[in-house]
């Protein structure tokens, strides 16, 4: 999917959660939101994009996608174990 | 003319705890205090003759036919205006009364045409009935005197009292020669519709009904709701369809397929032909009222444009091949299977529609989840109310409005944000107007001066005319005032809401940056008005918020919905009658399509696909393993299609090529797919890009249920056979079976039974129960066996209410030198959504093209005059519309509707969307407007493509007809 569109969408989400004074909580909420509402292929793509430098992703969105990568890794392990 | 089956008790139902016992014609009856003698008699089974009285209207006491005698009282009081008293003894039939009544009727008939046999009201005319009831045998005055009946006098001179029939309205005629001046039409326009288009002009014998300033109906302020036609006791106001077809012989109760008000109607039928639609007095959402769409605009259902045969084609440049149902279904199944084996399980999906029934929607999502084996299902609520689902779930715990419509009767302060009820939800708009006229205060938050702001006997206390895109900023300023001026309902918040979240929110909105003064430059709303409006909302008694797509269709749609819920919680305006958060849903079944699990991330009842217990219950019931990850949303489907990973789409009752933003992007996505299946009534814009067309059926051709904006589930009943042989739910079932996933429903009631089994909020719902109760508001289960008019009463659905932070993030869609104006979109009373239905009715007489509304200053700067062609250009595209200069707009903001595909309103709108749900930002697009003299390039291409598709269709249909 068009990665620029996904980046914009991730940034939009991060703008909402930026209101939370606790940044770690904000990042966790972003990850949770992505996990709950984004189709897995889109999640994979944004995680890969971050791994490749994450061009265009704003700092809080980056943190959120990082946390998402962890969440997805964990659930993948849970399914395999 | 009243419905052929309803009983008219003469005066409205009165509610009172105190009962009064009286005697009428020797019969004892007990009725609520305040009831009229006429109504009490009717309840005792005694009909008192009447003409000017009807139970939809307050008593008027003008016809003098309903006189009675009461023991101990002098004279002959009118039973309609006389309230009952304890122990009263009433006689309705005495020799004296008979004489008076005959005298009254004699006068009426002396000025009335005697063409009963050829009159459209024949057999159901109240005047005719009363002549019979009173035993009128002669008219001593003759018919030659002064009259309103004949165009010429006996002497051949023009009769000054005669007024010719007005046939200007496309749906009804007004024949003043038959008028008895009972004022029922005038009162219906006032008391039921609230438009005041009709009046009695003149005095005495000169008195006559006139529309506006003695205009033709079509040229008057009349909104063609039909309340006057229904109220008319004679044929003075008659439906043209009744004139054409004659009296109906049976009547079926069903639910309107237009807006989210969900009016109950009686389809009055002659065999399989509809004579007329009459709003149901027992309808819980509409109480016998309707609008021009629901009552009159049903001609689309039998329009010649309907396609009643399945068709397929390999490429969209090919003509269609007319095929049998078997072949079409087999083709779709084989294509979808081929795509799934070549491109993976996730390469196909489906779209459900808010215009379809709950049962149909449920079946499509079941087909996708269980049959296709993925969660790629979405619904058009994606582009309208998905933020409502998200925002209300996050704060209150349930994705639905909190009240019933009647709750407004207890409301003291009405706050309308981003909604235009008099146009988009007209029947509820009428109820709201009546409440405002009775004294409730009104705050309107809208960039435009909608009609409600200033309409007869209503003036908004505050119109906060904000800049488009600043809803959240404005909501935060309202919250700021409430918090900093100590207007929070502390007791409510302490008892009902999460304290930590509330404290965080309190600190957040109290920030200086959210003071009305500091936000004034951003929102454009004077700080003093914001402060005053906030005080009124917080302290004016029961305050209720009504909102629409002006809230949701923004980049911060979900944030705004949460901001609204925060306001209601902070002021304790939730959990009882008269208050609450009320999303006005656009289409008839937006609520239902969302409830039915149409969203890619949740099962019916708003439960996430990742929830193992919930998924387990569906796996057990459906007999297949289900995917535990969210699927693609509609805009994601488009992206994936352009990408090549999404290839097949089953669309039931939606027209994404017209309704979704950035048309050129949408059509590129459709063209990138290999199997687009459209199930619809017409070759709609999307079908022009389809490979398979499956004929759908109108709401008149199937059984099922719709759920309106109040969570009210009402029955849709089949009044005629499906034109193409199958109801929509049957088509989905055929497709599922062909895909190898068996479905064996024999009737939609079995589908509802399955929904009820699997969805806790629907446990108590069944067709049988809906038939019994008339309608049911969910949750309906063991705890609420008869449904739930008001939600969150003792506690919120999620337990404690949760305040959410609502940072204002300005949209990235900003005005600049290239695009200095903001375009916002909306709709109009006479048309509905993409117009596929209403464009195919006489409603085009009110609105036959989409116009660009522009403020005089902006127009003058550009040299644009009324009616000029105006080019509208955004970063997404360009289109051309005719200009309408209007001071309803604020300078800098232009507006259009999107009812006609050739207007290309969505060629202009962009891919910007709500951060949480991807609901498009339809309401804010930066544009430039210039004077032009020809259609845009897109419009020329559209025209050519459309003509080509139409000709391919006609070739195919012609070929099929020639043996």
From TrEMBL, chain A:
InterPro entries in alphabetical order: Formate_DH_dsu
High-level lineage: Bacteria, Pseudomonadati, Pseudomonadota, Gammaproteobacteria, Lysobacterales
Organism whose genome encodes this protein: Dyella dinghuensis
Pfam families: FdsD (PF11390)
UniProt-recorded name of the protein: Formate dehydrogenase subunit delta
UniProtKB/TrEMBL annotation, chain B:
SMART domains: Molybdop_Fe4S4 (SM00926), NADH-G_4Fe-4S_3 (SM00929)
Domain 4Fe-4S Mo/W bis-MGD-type: 249-305
InterPro entries reported for this sequence: 2Fe-2S_ferredoxin-like_sf (IPR036010), 2Fe-2S_ferredoxin-type (IPR001041), 4Fe4S_Fe-S-bd (IPR017896), 4Fe4S_Fe_S_CS (IPR017900), Asp_de-COase-like_dom_sf (IPR009010), Formate_Dh-H_N (IPR041924), Formate_DH_asu (IPR006478), MoPterin_dinucl-bd_dom (IPR006657)
Alphabetical keyword list: 2Fe-2S, 4Fe-4S, Iron, Iron-sulfur, Metal-binding, Oxidoreductase, Repeat
Boundaries of every 2Fe-2S ferredoxin-type domain copy: 18-96
Domain 4Fe-4S His(Cys)3-ligated-type: from-to ranges: 96-135
Family listed: Belongs to the complex I 75 kDa subunit family.
NCBIfam families: Fdh-alpha
Protein name: Formate dehydrogenase subunit alpha
Biological source species: Dyella dinghuensis
